[in-house]
Design goal:
alpha/beta; Rossmann fold; Arc Repressor Mutant, subunit A; five-stranded parallel β-sheet; four-stranded antiparallel β-sheet; about 20% strand
């Protein structure tokens, strides 16, 4: 799991909620843990300014509504974060209805933290490689599926398909990518496109996304290739 992940816990059991918050907060690859006790709070938090979260832990037996209904509402409202449902029940029917509601995985109580962490890491890793993921990028949120960058104030920067592909590939690599590799990944190995085409797209992309015109602080050039600036 990459550094700086955020997790939302929706769990009404006070002891379990506190325990999960404390234990998950101690994981070096988890940046923030937000915990609420009801489905209504969970929906409000997941769709509010604190979101999107990298993963949601959702109890099935909440005091105000069934966790499966909460999951359906989250999906209907556009929340694409992976959801792991927590339940005291252990039956195929419960698992099936939870997955049908839009959950990605199902963990039965009591569970060992090591097992839960393995499930969390697997779901986040899988989600990061889907276009539904939302990535932090400098002052923006990067939404590949929407081909868009968005500021905290809600300003939207539209991206072309190639610009989106460039940012997505650089973000997922997390390191410098040489021009030939980036060209092949974005345009295809047999495209016959020259590196000049890539450099033109990089130039136009920088004009769109760099916070200060003329300064390359997000999309960096290194010897032989490009990389995205890391956090901070």
């Amino acid at each position: 799991m990459a550094a700086g992940r955020s997790i939302l816990i929706i769990e009404d059991d006070d002891l379990l909620r506190r325990t999960l918050t404390e234990q998950l907060s101690q994981q070096e690859d988890v940046a923030t843990v937000t915990a609420v006790a009801t489905g209504a709070e969970g929906i409000e938090t997941a769709t509010g300014p604190a979101g999107p979260f990298d993963l949601i832990l959702l109890d099935i037996g909440l005091p105000d509504q069934d966790g499966r209904d909460v999951c359906r509402d989250l999906r209907r409202l556009g929340v694409r974060s992976p959801v792991i449902m927590l339940t005291g029940a252990d039956s195929d029917d419960d698992t099936i209805t939870g997955l049908d509601a839009g959950a990605n995985d199902y963990v039965t109580k009591p569970f060992r933290l090591a097992v839960l962490m393995a499930r969390i890491k697997a779901q986040i890793r899988q989600h990061r490689h889907s276009d539904d993921a939302v990535f932090p990028l400098g002052p923006y949120r990067f939404l590949p599926a929407a081909k868009m960058l968005e500021t905290a104030e809600g300003k939207k920067i539209r991206l072309t398909e190639k610009e989106t592909a460039i940012l997505k590939y650089l973000y997922r690599q997390g390191r410098m990518v040489d021009r030939e590799t980036l060209l092949a990944e974005v345009w295809g190995y047999n495209s016959g496109v020259s590196t000049h085409t890539l450099e033109t797209h990089i130039y136009r992309l920088r004009q769109k996304i760099e916070p200060v015109s003329g300064e390359n602080t997000l999309l960096l050039t290194e010897s032989g290739g490009y990389r995205l600036a890391g956090p901070g």
